[in-house]
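tool_call: predict_structure(chain=1)
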Amino acid sequence: MADQHGSFRDRFHAHSPSGGLCTIPLITNSIPNALTSRSGRPSPARYILSSRLLSGAFVSLVVSGIGISVTAPQITLFLVQQLHMSATVAGLYFLTNLAAPVAGYALGSLSDRLGSRLLVFRLSALAGFAGWTLMAVATQTWMPFAINIVLLGAAGAGAAQLQAAVRDELTVNPTPVDNQVVALIRMAMAIGWIVGPVIGAVAGAVWGLRPLLLGTGLTMLLSILPTLGAGAGAPPPSGSPSLDRPPALSAAERGRLTPLFVFTGIYVLIMCGETVKLAYLPLYMDGPLRLAAGLRGAVIGFQPLVEVALMPVAAKLADRFGIRPVLFAGAAMAVAAHCCYASADLFRAPVSALIAGQFLMAGVIATFGVLGITVAQRLEPSRVGMASSVFLSAFAVNAAVGGFVGSLGTSWLGVPHLFWISAAIAATGAVGLVVFDRYRPLSREKEEATERPDGRARPRSGRGCG
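tool_result:
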């Protein structure tokens, strides 16, 4: 692995604008125990720290993760308490997220053609800053709906372009632990979600919800800073799959995108209950359960804490057994998580059921968050930016579908029983995933390089990383 590590250092020095930045590889060499496993196998942290783009993407996602997680669990409270919407109307707000996939597809295709992932990311971050700032001063019921459609839908495409830039980097400079590198990058936003909900619950109670939204806008601006000096985040050079693409989609190519859209739709079914949870679990804890603000934030923040622990586990399991069984397990955990939320009032200590649900939901996000985007990018390897945007736009569609489900469920079944609907939808997605795998296998057999104890590479026998 010495040659591979050296190539990362050489490339880093070549792209560093100043000598000061070039000290990062020296730092990685000074703490080998932190960056290399005890078995001597390569650590994904080494590759992230030795790449300006990967390390910048990691820090940027931490910052934006904190900003979004501060606000997301509080947005329903903001709509109900500040703009005096009913819970049903507040749930319909999330339907405006249906505009996000359109913006994501357009911006993803734009980054494929411009060859600049980071430019599109920065434009998306500016849109997020403008959107959350305007949301903080909104006074009319219609304003959040319009802001979400026009600005925040485009802002959501930013993370997708960072993920596309990471995939391009790993295509040009592959590592023996690509799945684990992607897992660490994906963990960055989960790290933000560990502290964000607690900060949001407490700060919202102390300072109010409007300053909270303004703070989220500022974090969108701050998320740009770590990517400065990382280049354009360009696709791989000519001759690699990501660049050999026509300027526009033909009818045949649109048909070829069908598996990508189907897989994304399955992911929406499995994950849409997460939006229901973020919207109505805080109301349930604040209302019937009468939990303190700090405890409410801790319950929400417990999930991403577990995600951080489970994401590298999911990546290693995919390396060992393939992506298929890991995603199947994630889909099953989604059903079980919503059953925990729905039956919480049957327990003497309802919080214990909520925590169990949070643990299971962490497993869902750990599996699909790390491996789902890898499957999406493989389904459309010639348009990685577009594939990343389409798949990650599922978060916005989740919000729309979840908002609709929550709006109906809260008036029909009430809280927490509306989560039975989420469980049924997730079960439908799990069945769909099994059927999809029969026609487009989630795992694929291939030989990959693994490292011998002596540092030399050898082909791996058996299943690849999926």
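agent: Confidence is low (pLDDT under 50) at residues 1-37, 238-252, 445-466. Proceeding to next step.
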